[in-house]
Design a protein that fits this description.
Blueprint: H1 5-17, H2 26-33, H3 37-48, E1 55-58, E2 62-65, H4 67-91, H5 98-105, H6 111-120, E3 146-147, E4 156-162, H7 166-175, E5 182-188, E6 195-199, E7 202-206, H8 208-211, E8 214-218
Antiparallel strand pairs: 1-2, 3-8, 4-5, 4-8, 5-6, 6-7
């Protein structure tokens, strides 16, 4: 049965917030969904009481997805990331613009439309920000990326993905730091954890506000 827009949003954000292995807290869900914590508690309890249950929830311990809830969340994520890719590649949107549009469209496209988009795009595995796209059978490919902040002088890497913050995306676009670009770390400051990186003939100094939001494949 097709889930409501609100249910899909909750499942998607619970998945994203709990990817690191910790349950999604009520306060974090309230922040990303822009609702009051009491509203989150009520909705999460409702999802936990669905038949079959979509989430597991214990008071003060946060929420995690059941296998059924995870599958539903990955379906929404697949729609979202395919739509972002389509908007960039076909309609000429910038990678900083697509998130809001995809948020609206992800809830209304049919499975046939999803399959047609995927086929037309050549069945991409990553969206414009480098985020992995769930497979057609709703499994998330393994992410072996490392945070740029973990690199040190002399290491080289290729950018795989970046966080979907519009201001960050516009800034990285100006610097040319986009997925697929190879970079080298030429300096590290232990006092403030700033990295000096080189891309072709250009050098940049980046702080933790940026390096923790860029994920790379490190060269061996």
């Amino acid at each position: 049965m097709k889930k409501s827009t609100s249910t899909q949003d909750y499942l998607k954000h619970i998945y994203e917030l709990s990817e690191g292995g910790e349950p999604a807290s009520t306060n974090d869900l309230a922040r990303v969904l822009k609702v009051k914590p009491a509203s989150v508690t009520g909705m999460v309890q409702k999802l936990a009481n669905e038949k079959p249950a979509l989430v597991e929830y214990q008071k003060h311990q946060g929420a995690t997805l059941t296998p059924v809830g995870k599958k539903a969340a990955l379906e929404v994520l697949r729609h979202h990331r395919l739509l972002e890719t389509w908007l960039v590649q076909t309609l000429g949107y910038s990678w900083a613009e697509v998130h809001e549009e995809a948020e609206k469209l992800e809830h209304v496209i049919s499975e046939d439309f999803e399959r047609r988009i995927a086929a037309a795009l050549g069945n991409p595995t990553r969206d414009p920000h480098g985020e992995l796209i769930p497979t057609p059978d709703l499994k998330m490919p393994q992410d072996d990326s490392a945070s740029l902040s973990s690199l040190r002088s002399g290491q080289s890497a290729t950018i795989l993905r970046v966080n979907e913050d519009p201001n960050l995306l516009r800034h990285l676009d100006e610097l040319g730091l986009i997925p697929g670009i190879r970079l080298m770390v030429t300096g590290y400051s232990p006092l403030d954890n700033n990295l000096t990186i080189k891309v072709e003939k250009k050098s940049f100094v980046l702080g933790l506000n940026i390096t923790t939001k860029i994920f790379v494949e490190v060269e061996k």
